[in-house]
Structure formats: C-alpha cells, structure tokens
Amino acid sequence: MKIKKCKRIMLVALCAAMLFTVCGASCTGFQIKNNSAESSKAEEQSVTESTEEKSAESADESTDESTEEKSVESADQSKDESSAKSSVAEESKTEQESSDSSKVNTQYTAVDLIDMTVPEIIELMGGEFEVSYTLPVQIYFYNDDVFPGMGFWIEFHDVNSLEVKDDEILVKGKNIKDEIKAGKYTLSDISVKIGKVMKEMTGDMTYNEVADIIGDFSVEVGRPPHLGGTLPALGITLKYLYKTDGKIIEFHFSNKDIVKDVHDENGQRVFTADEVRKVNPELFGVYVYKDPENESDTDISSTDWKTLYKDYLNDKLSSSDYTEQMAFDLYDVDEDGIPELFTTSSSANAAMGYNVYTVFNGEIKDITFKPDYGMVSVNSEKHCAGYIYQHNGYHTHIIYEKTGDQFKKIINASSNYGAVEADDPELYYMLDGKEVSKDEYDDTLKEYVDLTWDTVGRKYKLDSSAINTAIDDWGSE
To answer: CB count, 10 Å around CB of 79?
Structure first.
C-alpha cells in the first residue's frame, strides 16, 4: 500500500514537474513572444525614429539646400539687379557722354566760321552761349559744348558805357548777351585753344606739327591780340601770320627756351624755322580773322562815304545831346582812299568824349578804341592810331593798328625813365602791364618813337557849313 501510495506521489510529482515544465516553457515562450513584440515595436520605433531622423536630416538638408538655393538665387538675383543697375548707370553715362559728344560740332572749323554772322554762329550753338570779357575791355561769346576751346570776339568799342552787375555785362543798361543774340554786333575774330583751326589742324599743336601741315616758317616776337589767360614769359610770344583763302591765321607760340635771336632789316626780332624746330614750342593761341586786303570796303565810291558821314554828322548836330563843344576831323589812317571820321564832344583833344568811324561794306561803322588818357594821334605810314603821352619824364605809348574794319592793339608801353635816375630802384619799363628790360622796351618801340604823329579830333567845329566844306573838299588839299 505504501509502495503504491509512494508511486502515486511520485507520479503526481512527476506530472506536476512536467506541468511546471510545460507551463514554464509556455510562460517563458509568452514572455519571449512578448519581448519579441516589444523588440519589434522598439525596432519599429527605432526604424521610425531613424526614418524620422533621416527625414529630419533630409528635411534639414533639403531646407539647407533650399536655403542655399534661395541664397544663391537671391545672390544671383541681387547680382543681376546690381548688374542691371550698373548696366543702366553705364548706359546712362554712355548716353550722357554720347549726348555731350553729339553736341560737339565737327563740321565747321574756325576758318569756316569766320565767314558767318554772329546770329548764324549762335544758331549752330543751339541758341545757347555765355559771354565774357578781358581787360582792356574785349568781349567774346562761347559754347564749349558745341565749339570746344573757341572764343568768338565781337567788335566792341563803347567801353565807357560798359558795366558788370550781378554777373551780367551791361552796355547802356542793356544785357550785352541779348544784344549779341539779336545781331547788334559783328564778329571780329575767333580765338582757338583746342578746337579745329582748319582741316587737320587744332589749336593745341606744336610748331613742328603745324609746320608739317603748312610748311616751315620763321617767327617773330609778337603779342596776342587778346590777353586773357596766363601769358608766356615777358608777355610776348612767337608770332606768324599765315594767309589762306582770304583769311589770316595768326599763330602765337610759347617763347619758352628760345634764347638766340637774329634781326631782320627792320630791326624786328625773328627766329628761323631751323631754330624753332629744334625747340618745337607749343601753341599759346591761334586767332583767325578775315584778310583786310580782300575786304570790299574800298569798293564804295567817294560819293557814298561822303553822304554817310554828312548824314551822321547832321544827325548829331540836330540831336538832343548836341553841345557847342563838339568838333570833328577826317584822317585816312590806312591810306585806302576813304578817311576815318574822328568826333569829339569835349573842349580838348583828350581821350574822353571822342569816337572814330570808318565806312565798311557800304555802312558807317564805329571803330572807337578808348584807353584812359592821352591825345588821339595818328600815323598813316604804319596805319596806326593811339595815345602818345609824355609828361614830366613819364612816357606812355598805347598804339592800335587799323586792319580792315577794326583797330587792334599792338603796343602798350610805359616807363618813368625821364623822371628818375638810371640807377634808381623805382625805375621801370613796362609792356602790357609786365615789367621788362630796357632793351626789350626799346626794341618794341623803336619802329614807332621816331614817327611823325598827327593829333586829330578837333579840326572842324560841328556845324552845317563846316560839315559840307570839310567833307566835300577832303583830298583836294
């Protein structure tokens, strides 16, 4: 019984062990399965996280790339905009330069323009120009956008009526710019600094460049007709007159480095072409004007000039400004057969209150020159008029040469050599306002000091009888 009971107990234990083993295995299997699910879930989560990270990385990378692309695009766009702006600026600048350049008139040279009237030249300027002047008073107009480096000088002699007010040049209260534009003045000459003088020649060349065009030439000591700007040493230049097609081109070269000089038979200092070529001086200025020998003022008949002068003097006689002090005179300064008319309104032959007229192209023309003092003197041998003043040892010579329808100043000299001793430090010799040596002073004046000068202006009293007699009888003396 006991044995059986023991067997049963063992059997039960064995069953229990087997059941435990099975259950344990089942439980362990469940746990493994469960762990596997969790592991799978974890793996899924890990994969998900990895995917998300990759997605995030990809997104970041995409964002970065997108940002970079946008940045590049923005930079490119900015660069394009900047380039566009730069291009616009360049185009604008080019257009401006093209516009400025398009204003420059390259069709006409100074030799062409001198044949035109003042209104015709202003029309070529598009009606736009400025007016300026130099001392002694000479007036010119210009437009550097159209004719670079050119000055257009007008015939102007009414110096006493000129004033400058608020940057305007007024003559008898009228703006001279308006008067020029209206054609009230005629053209005297054209100065050229850098513009076109004639075909293939500009005003900024050297002697050799000019000589290569027109041929070699000697030069003489001279002075520019207009003294604006910085003058060469001693105020003198090396001058040469070139005639072409009824015009005169007056060249003035710098006198720098020209030291050797020779003299021609008239005593005028000249320099040979060989000497000048070695130094090759630069042009100081070029002046273009009509050749007076080709002008038609001598074609007018004697009856015409007499009629013009009579009409003018009779108008003066009947005008409201007539006074008993008025007088007149006739003198043929340039010996062309037609005398110049000198009138005075003062009681002496002084500079103030006088005028000079000539007949040119069938019209009476005022060609008055007005220094500040002295007697009006003339000399037909040199075709000159001016002021010769000598008093208490002081000497002044202001001399003008008549060419065609104008007087051009050729000498402005003064000295006190008669008022002080030769070794006095106050002793001076002046030419054109600049102090020079005695030799230079004497050399400039030697052609003129020994001339016979006639004082003019008050030979006839201004009345009807004198007007008819003086004019009708002129030339019969």
So the answer is: 12
The single residue listed with the structure tokens 């053209």 is 187
pTM of the model: 0.48
Q: Considering the domain boundaries, does residue 351 fall inside one?
A: yes
Angle separating helix axes 302-318 and 464-472, nearest 10 degrees: 170
Final residue of a structural domain among 248, 272, 292: 292
Q: For Cα atoms 114, 120, 122, give the angle at the middle one, nearest 5 degrees.
A: 100
Residues 66, 17 within the same domain: yes
C-beta of residue 379 within 8 angstroms of C-beta of residue 453: yes
Distance of CA 324 to CAs 6, 314, 315, 331, 425, Å?
185, 14, 15, 22, 48
Instruction: Locate the DSSP E strands across 172-253.
Output: 174-175, 187-192, 196-198, 201-202, 219-222, 237-244, 247-253
DSSP code, position 139 = E
Q: What is the largest CA-CA distance in the chain?
A: 202
* Structural domains counted in the chain: 3
Q: Can you tell me whether residue 312 is helix, strand or coil?
A: helix
Q: For residues 179 and 168, is the Cβ–Cβ distance under 8 A?
A: no
One domain for residues 286 and 149:
yes
Judge if 279 and 397 occupy the same domain.
no
Residue 249 in contact with residue 239, Cβ under 8 Å? no
Which of 56, 75, 103 is where one domain is finished?
Answer: 103
- Secondary element (H or E) of residue 285: strand 283-290
Tell me the three state secondary structure of residue 332: coil
**269 and 393 assigned to the same domain:** no
**Pair 168, 280 in one domain:** yes
Domain boundaries, position 467: 297-472
Give the length of the chain: 477
Q: With H, G, I as helix, E, B as strand and everything else as coil, classify residue 132.
A: strand
Per-residue pLDDT of the chain (477 residues; tens, 9 = 90+): 444 444 454 444 444 444 444 344 433 333 333 443 344 444 444 444 444 444 444 445 444 555 455 544 554 555 555 554 455 445 554 554 444 556 788 889 999 999 999 999 999 999 999 999 887 678 999 999 999 999 999 988 766 777 888 888 888 788 999 989 988 888 999 999 989 999 889 999 999 999 999 999 999 888 888 755 555 545 578 899 999 888 999 999 987 766 455 444 454 677 889 989 999 999 999 999 998 776 544 445 545 899 999 999 999 899 888 888 889 999 999 888 889 999 887 655 454 567 899 988 778 888 887 654 545 889 998 899 988 878 899 998 889 998 878 888 899 999 999 999 999 999 999 998 899 999 999 999 988 888 888 888 888 999 999 999 999 988 765
Residues 84 and 223 reside in one and the same domain: no
